[in-house]
Amino acid sequence: MGGTTGPGAPEPPPSGGTGAQRAGRTLTAEEDAEYQRLRRAAAVGHRRTRAAGASVLLVLALLLAPAAVVAAWAEATVDDRSRYVETVAPLASDPAIQQTVTERLTDEAVENVDVEAVTDELARTLREAGAPPRVVEGAEQLAGPLRSALRSVVERVVGEVVASDAFERAWEAANGEAHDALLRVLTGRDGGVVRAEGEDVQLDLGEVVDEVRDRLVDAGFEQAAAIPHSERTITLFHAEELSRAQNALRLLTVLGVWLPLVTLVLAALAVWAAPAHRLMLVIAALGTGVMMLVLLAVLAFARQRYLDSVPPAALPAEAAAEAFDTLVRFLRASALTLLVVSLITAAAAYLYGPGRLAHGVRSAVNRGAAAVGGALSRKGLRTGPTGRWLAGHRSLTTGVVIAAGAVTLMLWNYPTVGAVALVVGLVVLVLLALAVAASAAGGDEDTTEPAPGGSLS
Question: Which UniProt keywords apply (predicted)?
């Protein structure tokens, strides 16, 4: 006896019948065929709607992916002192940067020494002492050799200082203090010598006076301890664009946290909404990899534009290249890491599908695990009920292990390609160990799980 439903919702024919009973009437063969055609058309329309929605979500996620990586990198570099110092620290030990710093400091030191005044004074002294004119004239011509000798000595001393560990420590400390001062100005936070008040950048004389007093006391001038604390401040300069810069920092802080999350959610929704989840996952992963390649290409283009724009007199090309590469190395590393993760995700999604290559790889792994597990079982190293449980819940254990690896990478503080390789290697080893344990249960149970079903289309 056929059941009835609400109006406008015809039911399929009963099993074994030639028509469907509807509201007390049996559908004819032609009516049943039309009913089935409408059902198929509705299903196709539903799949197309889901595919279109998933495509829109995926396009949005892919377009936001490079911006999300850049925002996260910029937020971490600007807002995190240790990250910023870690970014610029290698510059202090770079030979090209050291050479540039040495030359600049040497030029500054030599220019502040009046060599002509020294030679003129020497010539005047010799003349007053009654020295022969030739000797006096020779003294007047010592300016060039004296300047050359002075430069050689200063350059050697400065080079030794710049190449020392003390310079690296001073470099890191100076950059850390500069970073703190910049953040205080941009965020308006109190504390420190330099701070922002409205659109004015002010110097807190109180902290300067306290620092001078402490240094004088440390140097043995005990009377300086009586210097009182000052509450005065002076305005260093008025910055009309300061509020805009502060707003930009606040926006960057928000984008650096939320933009990557929004991008990830959009990609996840695209995979969930798609009719073929695995196919959409492969496309999303490969698309993300392509966008990371685009980001790397943009970085290479920006690097060349930067090098072309820097005058050699301001900064030598080699030093400029090292400075650019050092400052963006974490951004480049993030893009490379995400590229590797994308390729691994796409490969894993494909290998879980019904393709001939995927089925062959899974079969080979299962045969290898079964062979090793069987050998262990024959030697008495059986896993018993635990192995049989693992064999019966292969999909569950595989999902848990992969999810644990993904969570580990998400919680990793600034993961690198090496970190991804380590986590993926551990996941693969654990999965192989579980497969061997499932095959070493003993008995006649078939511990080889059938290939996953579904399709990529």
Answer: Membrane, Transmembrane, Transmembrane helix
95 close to 364: Cβ distance less than 8 angstroms: no
Residue of 409, 275, 433, 258 whose CA lies nearest to 345: 409
Question: Do the domain assignments include residue 38?
Answer: no
Q: What is the reported pTM?
A: 0.68
Geometric angle at alpha carbon 100, from 96 and 104, rounded to 5°: 170
359-363 long-range CB contacts below 8 Å, 24 or more apart?
359/451, 362/451, 363/451
Angle at Cα 268 formed by Cα 363 and Cα 427, nearest 5°?
40
Alpha carbon distance 242, 248 (integer Å): 10
Q: Token pair 């499932």 is at which residue? A: 438
208 in a structural domain: yes
Residue 457 scores a pLDDT above 50? no
Greatest mean pLDDT range, 179-193, 379-393, 425-439: 425-439
The CA distance from 209 to 29, in Å, is 100
Orientation angle between helical segments 329-351 and 356-378, nearest 10 degrees: 80
Q: Is the pLDDT assigned to residue 17 strictly greater than 60? A: no
Structural domains counted in the chain: 2
Q: How far apart are CA 3 and CA 20, in angstroms?
A: 10
How big is the CA angle at 293 (ends 291 and 297), to the nearest 5 degrees?
115
407 occurs within a structural domain: yes
CB 27 within 8 A of CB 233: no
Separation of alpha carbons 381 and 439, rounded Å: 11
Among candidate residues 43, 8, 40, 12, the one with its CA nearest the CA of residue 27: 12
Please identify which residue in the block is written with the tokens 């009046």: 114
pLDDT digits (tens, 9 = 90+) for 89-135: 887 788 887 788 788 777 777 777 666 776 667 667 767 777 677 76
Tokens of 410: 């998400």
Q: What is the 3-state secondary structure (H, E, C) of 383-426?
A: CHHHHHHHHHCHHHHHHHHHHHHHHHHHHCCCCCHHHHHHHHHH
Looking at 127-253, which runs of residues are DSSP E strands? 194-197, 200-204, 233-238
Q: End of a domain among 187, 218, 235?
A: 235
Q: Give residue for tokens 């290939």.
A: 451
Q: Which domain holds residue 214?
A: 200-235
Backbone angles phi, psi at 381, to 5 degrees: -90, 70
d(CA 276, CA 135): 96
Residue 366 placed within a domain? yes
Residues with Cβ < 8 Å from 374, sequence gap 6 or more?
A: 439, 440
* Residues forming beta bridges with residue 25, ordered by sequence position: 22
Strand partners, 26: 21
Distance of alpha carbon 96 from alpha carbon 91, whole angstroms: 9
Contacts of residue 316, Cβ cutoff 8 Å, sequence gap at least 6: 96, 99, 100
Which residues, in sequence order, are CB contacts of 399 under 8 Å at separation 6+?
none
